[in-house]
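# step 3/5: fold
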Amino acid sequence: MEWWDGISVVVHACDVDDGSVRRTLLGKVRRGPYAVLEVQRDDDPDKKFSWPVYVTVVRARKRCATIVLVVAPNAAVATWAASSIDLGLGLGNLKPLVLGPLVVPEVTDQVEAERETELAVLSAVVHGNGPNGLAVVVAALGALGRLDQSHAAAYFQIVYNALREPVRRALEALIMERQTEAKATFPPFAQQLIDRGVREGKLDGLREGKLDGLRDALLRLLGRAGITLTEEHRARIQACTDTATLDRWVENVLGAKTAADVFS
């Protein structure tokens, strides 16, 4: 894809040792500088301190010019991210290069997405939750087949993580529908990742359901025992996410005379 000044950027997995930097993506230009790429959904003052660190680490490792490239789906966040970062006493600054919704086009045409896959991926990240979000995402994911497995999987993860719940559910339904109709236009790992997410979601739901049941049982038992609870006690019960602790409190009700006996 073509950037300003005709620079072509290819995004690939970051190989920097620092843990926080590893969570970013590293874009390698064919010739010349590197770009540390981040997807920024909200204002985060801490990033104005961490972005210079990312640049320094990559610049030291690669021995070449390095920039921060921020993809911001929200226009207001894009404006915030684009502000220059003063590195101290006005003697140096870092100015992120920002791609927002006003800069990145909506790519919904499959032919164009296959021709400009990196642009299609960025379009899906920036516009995936918008009015034409599903069409943009489908075009991007449909183009991943032209890439090698590792790059395609990385791109899919980026796009999927950027999507909000309604679009995720719509995408999952579309993938399953096309598989049922033997119209598999998405890479196999797309279904595998979604299946894993659904399984994890169900497990989380079952666990939360059990916690809710224990909380309700505890409150009912306390009511029958005539033990008075303050708002602080009730908040403590609702905030507890450990089943063993809730089980212990339920058992304590049997011989308790006060709330203090229950929570001991």
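# step 4/5: annotate
Residues 204-262 form one domain.
# step 5/5: archive (pending)
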